[in-house]
Amino acid sequence: MGPISRLTPAVVLQMRSLKVVYEHDGSDTELDNFTISIRRHQQPPTHFRSRPRDVIVAVRPINDEPPRLTLAAPLEAWSGDVTPLSRKSLTAEDADSGPEALWFIVTHGPTNGHLARVDRHSKPISNFTQLDIDNGLVVFVHGGSYFSSLLTYLALDKTRRFRISFQ
Questions:
Q1: Residue extents of the structural domains in the chain
Q2: For residue 162, what pLDDT is reported?
Q3: pTM
Q4: Taking Cα atoms as reference points, which of 122, 108, 111 lies closest to residue 154?
Q5: Residues 6+ apart with CB under 8 A from 17
Q6: Which helix (H) or strand (E) holds 140?
Q7: 61-64, long-range: CB within 8 Å, 24+ apart, which pairs?
Q8: Does domain 68-166 have CATH number 1.20.1260?
Q9: Which residues pair with 104 in a beta bridge?
Q10: Quick one: pLDDT at residue 159?
Q11: CA 103, CA 96: separation in Å to the nearest integer?
């Protein structure tokens, strides 16, 4: 590769006029490069070629991966008890988003109790993040019935959604 340098105004104009196009491969890399040189075509041929120059490309990542959900183990709660949600019972992962950006939105239920923040058991919540679960901030407050409870929710990042129910 040649030394990194500024491109000439002619090359920039050609790139802007789409005579030179960069196409990213879709990977999650944030930095790429290519080498460019210019050759003059004239009659008679002069075989003039510029020195190769490296072009550094800063790639803006996009959020294109949907959240993946893992329901490893059912949440077990004693009648009338307060039970923390954990990664064992509810986990969403996304290659493009951290746990603070993965939201759970409760769309129905739970049928025999409610979800709450660990410091406010009496106030039901309908949304929380994976980071909240990881930090032990979300609890299931069982309503006292001996029957299992059904919960339906959406798991989403800023662009993708996934709907699921669990008992």
A1: 9-58, 68-166
A2: 47
A3: 0.60
A4: 108
A5: none
A6: strand 138-142
A7: 61/28, 61/30, 61/96, 62/96, 63/96, 63/97, 63/157, 63/158, 63/159, 63/160, 64/96, 64/159
A8: no
A9: 128, 155
A10: 60
A11: 13
